[in-house]
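Structure tokens please, single chain.
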Amino acid sequence: MTEQTPAGDKLQKLLAQAGTGSRREMEKIIAEGRVRVNGVVAKLGDRATARDKISVDGKVVTLAEPGLAGRVLVYNKPEGEISSRSDPEGRRTVFDSLPKVKSGRWIAVGRLDFNTSGLMLFTTDGELANALMHPSSEIDREYLCRVLGQVDDALIKRLTDGVLLEDGVAKFTDVVDGGGEGANHWYYVALMEGRNREVRRLWESQDVQVSRLKRVRFGKVFLPPRLRQGQWDEMPFKEVQDLYTMVGMTAEKQAKVQPKDREIIERQQRKNRGIKRRKK
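Here you go.
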């Protein structure tokens, strides 16, 4: 007699899909006893279905409709913002610039450090965010960096062959000359991971300092030229579907957006393009 698999999906997966947070964050709050299923405190490994009543910190969670895509924002992060949801020092965070969502919340796909600018993605689907960040997805990131120091072919070869850092071997998959004169020079670099300050640490391992750093691409998603620093734009549904496909997931239906939220999106898109709405 074969053992039957319990009905439903893992709780952390359902919560992530609902936009409550990333799968890793959901595992943490389940372990802390903050999640209940039908009034009973849940534990890691528990499963649930759409028929179950799930709550986090006493608030009922609305589960995502099967096949429904999450919303995705493209954001041009300026220097001087942190990627955390809040900061004890009161510094501005990337979330301060994003539109509010009626259910769930925006989940950052990876982070950029305080002094790094450029492309960030946010989604209301924690399962998608988890897949995009997971090393098994093998999604490359591209950065434009201005460096100070002597760079030659031998140094670039060391960086592409691999350098032992304090948290393991790291390397650039590609380094392309971006121009510049004198000691300061620009390079486009690509790598397959998103470890903390990895681009800066790779250059620093060769006694080269990074004075400017900007992420310009994540997988097939490029930072739109029209998007100024501090601005966001909502990704069209077709591109959202491509994002799901990139990590082996599917999204059959477009996320539902309330009329008020749609008005906010359209207003921001006009602002991004420098278009002023005519008064009636």
